[in-house]
């Protein structure tokens, strides 16, 4: 075989390999976007250690941190019910009540049904005080941001930190999400998104966002896609240690 033919073959192989890599990369980016697209059916599920307030209209003796009361029900004042290790809270008059894994509408309906033994038409509101999204790394003001909504866009949350720093690596924004006993780590490349505001990357309460520095060249290689048997908080600590 001539040298020219060998060189031509190698060039063709190189071009094909590069094209295949780009296609795979695009497919991965597309899948990542789908993982964090808007889900109209998503509802936050109550977890262990959540802080819950209970409001029953006109029934101060049944309420804890009531939004209907005239007194401050801020978390600072300790007026909340803590979901214990068994997934229960202690509700006045109702006693031990299992709440873990329930959405807020489901819990409200459960409490209303039980209270109908004593009240004709109970008006009940339930709120989780510690619904939060944490943002770490190359943003102007890293913070744990309290959210009321279940659906929050990435740029909305980043804007609350003051925006990205100059050295933010927008090619490797990491989002951590708890999935059962494991934590899923997803990479978002903001430089490949043609229309970032309308791509609608959706964050949920409990998510962590890590924005690495451009100096962390090996961050992607060392960060697994799944960190087994851990919490989002500890997984974030593991990844920050890789920066």
How would you sum up this structure in a few lines?
The protein has 243 residues and is of the alpha+beta class.
Question: What can you tell me about this protein's structure?
Answer:
There is one protein chain. The protein is 28% helix and 23% strand. It is α+β, with helices and mostly antiparallel strands and 243 residues long. The protein folds into 2 domains: 127 residues, Outer membrane lipoprotein wza fold like (Roll), CATH 3.10.560.10; 78 residues, wza like domain (wza like fold, 2-Layer Sandwich), CATH 3.30.1950. Strand 9 and strand 10 form a beta hairpin. The longest helix has 33 residues.
SSE arrangement:
Elements: H1 3-35, E1 51-56, E2 81-82, E3 88-91, E4 95-98, H2 104-115, E5 124-128, E6 132-137, E7 143-146, E8 152-153, H3 154-159, E9 173-179, E10 182-188, H4 196-199, E11 202-203, E12 208-211, H5 219-222, E13 226-227, H6 232-240
Parallel strand pairs: 6-12
Antiparallel strand pairs: 1-2, 1-5, 3-4, 6-7, 8-11, 9-10, 9-12, 10-13
- Structural class computed from helices and strand pairing: alpha+beta
CATH-derived topology of the largest domain: Outer membrane lipoprotein wza fold like
Characterize the largest beta sheet: strand count, sense, and whether it forms a barrel.
6 strands, mixed
Q: How many beta strands in the DSSP annotation? A: 13
Name the beta content range.
15-25%
Organism: Chryseobacterium joostei
Family: Belongs to the BexD/CtrA/VexA family.
Subcellular location: Cell outer membrane
Protein name: Polysaccharide export outer membrane protein
């Amino acid at each position: 075989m001539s040298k020219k033919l060998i060189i031509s073959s190698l060039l063709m192989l190189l071009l094909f390999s590069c094209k295949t890599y780009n296609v795979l990369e695009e497919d991965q980016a597309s899948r990542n976007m789908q993982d964090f697209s808007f889900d109209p059916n998503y509802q936050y599920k109550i977890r262990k250690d959540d802080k819950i307030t209970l409001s029953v209209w006109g029934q101060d003796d049944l309420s804890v941190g009531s939004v209907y009361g005239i007194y401050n029900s801020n978390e600072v004042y300790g007026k909340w019910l803590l979901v214990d290790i068994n997934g229960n809270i202690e509700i006045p008059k109702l006693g031990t009540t299992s709440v873990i894994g329930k959405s807020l509408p489901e819990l409200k309906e459960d409490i209303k049904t039980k209270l109908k033994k004593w009240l004709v038409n109970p008006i009940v509101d339930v709120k989780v005080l510690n619904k939060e999204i944490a943002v770490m790394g190359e943003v102007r003001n890293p913070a744990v941001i309290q959210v009321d909504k279940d659906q929050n866009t990435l740029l909305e949350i980043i804007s609350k930190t003051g925006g990205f720093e100059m050295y933010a690596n927008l090619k490797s924004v990491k989002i951590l999400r708890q999935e059962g006993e494991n934590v899923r780590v997803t990479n978002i490349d903001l430089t490949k998104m043609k229309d970032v505001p309308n791509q609608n990357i959706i964050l949920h309460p409990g998510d962590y966002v890590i924005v690495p520095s451009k100096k962390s060249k090996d961050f992607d290689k060392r960060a697994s896609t799944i960190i087994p048997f851990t919490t989002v908080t500890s997984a974030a600590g593991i990844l920050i240690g890789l920066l």
